[in-house]
Amino acid sequence: MIVIMFIILGILAIIPEILIYRTLLKSRSKRAKRLYIAQAITVNLLMIIFMLFYAVMIVNPTFMGVVTWVILLFFISFFSKFALLFFLVVRWFIRLFSKRRELKSLIYVGYCAAVLVVCVMLYGATFGRTSLDVRYVEIQSDRLPQSFDGFRIAQFSDVHIGNYGGWTGLIEKLVTTINEIKPDIVVQSGDLVNIHSEELSDEFIRLFSQIEPQLYSVLGNHDLAYYIADTLKINPSRSVASLVQKQQSMGWSVLQNRGEWLYRGVDSILIGGVTFANNHHHNGYNSNAGGSNMGEALREANDGQYTILVAHSPNQFDSVSLYVPQSDLTLSGHTHTMQFKLSVGSWQWSPAQWAYERYSGLYEKQGRHLYINDGLGYVVFPLRIGTRPELTILTLRKK
After folding, report:
1. For residue 181, what are the CA distances in angstroms to 71, 160, 186, 329, 392?
2. Terminal CA-to-CA distance of the chain, rounded, Å?
3. Domain co-membership, 301 together with 366
4. How far is C-alpha 122 from the geometric centre of its chain's CA atoms?
5. Is the pLDDT of residue 19 over 90?
6. Looking at the structure, do residues 74 and 154 belong to the same domain, yes or no?
7. By residue range, what is the domain housing residue 368?
8. Percent with pLDDT over 90 in the chain
9. Same structural domain, 102 and 146
10. What CA–CA distances, in Å, run from 332 to 183, 307, 361, 382?
């Protein structure tokens, strides 16, 4: 599906190339025209070629890194030219109904818009992608046991570690920050890897093992090896088993449709975790490890018990009350806010809202809370605009 989408985008990208060429370059020298045609063919052809071999290349983390940066190059070219094209179209409409024939100022504004798009996207590919954003959130509940007032949970999600290659900088920041803050527990809400367990190298295992508080994790769709293209080279079932074993070797508690009790003073609360649903919509591959069993994860919960659910997908939030009449807090990830978010005060917008009813931050429904972490890593392209890699510190308060 993703391959078809990008091939279509590559074809669509020809439209601004033709219009810009006809509008701005018709009076230019032959050399300028040749240079423009050469860059247009190079960028779009690279995109199409890499997409044709996408399924083969993503098995290798090095090749996967190359693919994502080629996609980013394509997007920078695509959106900057559409920014320029917007002002060329405005200029064409004005000239259509006006005697003013040149309107060169709009061309210059278009150039500035294109440069601005390039700068914003380069920022998102550098600082926006690699700097850690620590967010503090307070959640109040009259159902929280008194002993757990002030209980702190550090949450991170969607690491997609295969996209980093050998770069460990962000994970080093993450581990250091968690240990400095000293939360009571840490939650990793899925998609630790991108394609398969081999991405979790010895160096990353060493770093993650340094997280001092007890860490609870669940398996997301990428953890379940749904996207392995060569299932003969890398067995999906063995990949999932290896990933679970590696997490356990780091001291993590992997909540595969089960729960554990947390104790503080004379009180206790339940934390349960569910594996990502096995909905058979992931490239047709099945590791036989998917399947969400919320009833089993929350089996020991009761009406009077404060309950935390870790579920990779926020879409499961509405299902919790079917198993626990008064569930309290759900921690999710998955959406990445599509790695693009605009925020002004309490207002926010992201293309993720076209796909998800809830996509970022804190939500409340009838006394139940959902927090969606924006994630650390990325998929498809190495870019984050308005949504830096997130570490959330959630403080529970007795109301």
Report:
1. 37, 24, 11, 21, 11
2. 47
3. yes
4. 18
5. no
6. no
7. 134-398
8. 53
9. no
10. 18, 14, 10, 22
Give the chain's domain count: 2
How confident is the model over 100-142, as pLDDT tens digits? 666 778 888 988 999 999 999 999 999 999 999 999 999 999 9
Looking at the DSSP bridge assignments, the partners of residue 216 are 187, 253
Distance between CA atoms of residues 309 and 324, nearest Å: 10
- 116 with 71, same domain? yes
d(CA 2, CA 100): 45
Using the predicted structure, report yes or no on whether residue 50 has a pLDDT greater than 90. Answer: no
* 310 and 365 share one domain: yes
User: Which of 99, 125, 151 represents a domain boundary (last residue)?
Assistant: 125
One domain, residues 212 and 272: yes
**Residue 102 and residue 6 share a domain:** yes
Which amino acid is residue 90, in one-letter code? V
Mean pLDDT of 26-38: 70
Task: Flag whether pLDDT at 387 surpasses 90.
Answer: yes
One domain for residues 166 and 72: no
Residue 220: count of CB within 10 angstroms of its CB: 26
Q: What is the pLDDT of residues 186-205, one digit of tens each?
A: 999 999 999 889 999 999 99
pLDDT tens sequence across 304-361: 789 999 999 999 898 887 777 767 999 999 999 999 999 888 889 999 999 999 999 9
382: domain CATH number is 3.60.21.10
Q: Domain boundary residue among 93, 125, 157?
A: 125
* pTM for this prediction: 0.88
Query: Would you tell me how many other CB atoms lie within 10 Å of the CB of residue 346?
Result: 6
